[in-house]
């Protein structure tokens, strides 16, 4: 979920640690500034940067930046290996997707064969090339989306259309055997696609869940919103509600939500606002956005945007007068999507999986949510997975955690209205796990 290109390393900090100001203070300042101060900002030299910051956050990017260099492809019979420029991504073991030729090419990249720190190169296995000619590729981008479609995973799937505002949203439907009464609705992150959710379909099937891998407004597949802007979860949840309605009309009786990155924020909004929220049995969130103020402060810092300019950019997103500058049809209420502050209001059992070295969405709000609501939230830390690649680094552990936790949540209830079985307490990130 890259909001900006990184321009330099920076430590991951919570919003309360950035700018020397607590979250409560930031909200108080935001509420006190009002329209007059916003107008004053526009008269300053910082206004252009603040507008850029705000617009960049909510404007969908139609083309990913090809920032990963391919140095050579080596063929040994039917097998291939690729030499890549060593980066923070390519030097972590695991299995990944690599997109090239503007996204038309897609390869599955496997284990590290060798790594030369002095030459800054890494040699990795090529497990499969789904599309394009990797031997001619020179640049591309790294991804957690390993497979292009359900068929590549060996899963029979149906292409379905879900009625949403302004049209129909394509989705993949992967049915479990028998008449599955519980469906998994899977929500990808910002700038990603439903391919991202394919990693979770296998565990869902093992649990007897039918999976619906959805698209939503502004993701390039579903119809765009009227303003063509992300709502950061505040508007997209309506498309997930439509997906739940589709599931209920086709045999589902209850729902498990899966969400990655901004998809996690969308799931939280769905569980809070949807008229079907009472049917959401559980949520599995991978590197979710728990607090947008924290994420935006983090991105301002790593892009060397002055903290005051970053805070004014946030104000533009939430203030009615900012709409003329951001292009939003309605302000985005970041406070309503701060689940650290609203922790006790979360009443849906939730598993959060988050790497402690996530470079895009700091993990601290995930831990704080679990600490403040241990009855509902279980936190499982990963190491070295960076953003939304926990499955890629350790698929066995990811799947084991998800299946064990969901089996507990989906176990038959003793009596209608009775309390669910005790849930695992929130875990802290032990050093060196």
Automatic annotation (TrEMBL):
<feature type="domain" description="AB hydrolase-1">
    <location>
        <begin position="185"/>
        <end position="297"/>
    </location>
</feature>
<dbReference type="InterPro" id="IPR029058">
    <property type="entry name" value="AB_hydrolase_fold"/>
</dbReference>
<feature type="compositionally biased region" description="Low complexity">
    <location>
        <begin position="416"/>
        <end position="433"/>
    </location>
</feature>
<keyword id="KW-0472">Membrane</keyword>
<keyword id="KW-0812">Transmembrane</keyword>
<dbReference type="Pfam" id="PF00561">
    <property type="entry name" value="Abhydrolase_1"/>
</dbReference>
<dbReference type="GO" id="GO:0003824">
    <property type="term" value="F:catalytic activity"/>
</dbReference>
<dbReference type="InterPro" id="IPR000073">
    <property type="entry name" value="AB_hydrolase_1"/>
</dbReference>
<feature type="transmembrane region" description="Helical">
    <location>
        <begin position="27"/>
        <end position="54"/>
    </location>
</feature>
<keyword id="KW-1133">Transmembrane helix</keyword>
<protein>
    <recommendedName>
        <fullName>AB hydrolase-1 domain-containing protein</fullName>
    </recommendedName>
</protein>
<feature type="region of interest" description="Disordered">
    <location>
        <begin position="413"/>
        <end position="433"/>
    </location>
</feature>
